[in-house]
Amino acid sequence: MLRTLIQRGTARTGSHLCSTVAASTPSPGVSNEAAAGETNSDEPIWDMENPFKKTRRECILCRNKIEVDYKNTQLLSQFVSNYTGELYQKHITGLCEHQHQKVRLALHHAQCIGILPHYHKDLRFIRDPKLFDPLHPQRPNPH
């Protein structure tokens, strides 16, 4: 049969014959609309989001819109070490620079007034749920 097609001159190259047959019959499992709508699968998709874009991390205070106040000693004690009374660093707490500065100033103000102890955590706040784990920082230490 192929010999007769070649003799007639209809199929000089095999690609011409294959391309007409392939275009007329879609592959199994693909509808006619999908086969007709496809142009070239190698072209870039312009309206697709960047799959490599990193998700933006927000600190817990910004995400929940919590205002830092020196009178909120329960919140401030969450960011203070039980043993030293010092404020945890921002890479451990996961706070942004702005909120860390607010917590630091509110903590200093509360300690100066005397409503928050300097060296230990108030016993009423020992059993509070932890906002972060001081042994496993949320971000690596920048230093």
From TrEMBL:
Protein name in UniProt: 28S ribosomal protein S18c, mitochondrial
Gene (UniProt): LOC100900743
Keywords: Ribonucleoprotein, Ribosomal protein
Database matches in InterPro entries: Ribosomal_bS18, Ribosomal_bS18_sf
Sequence similarity: Belongs to the bacterial ribosomal protein bS18 family.
GO cellular component terms attached to this protein's record: mitochondrial small ribosomal subunit
Disordered: region residues: 22-47
Pfam families listed in its UniProt record: Ribosomal_S18 (PF01084)
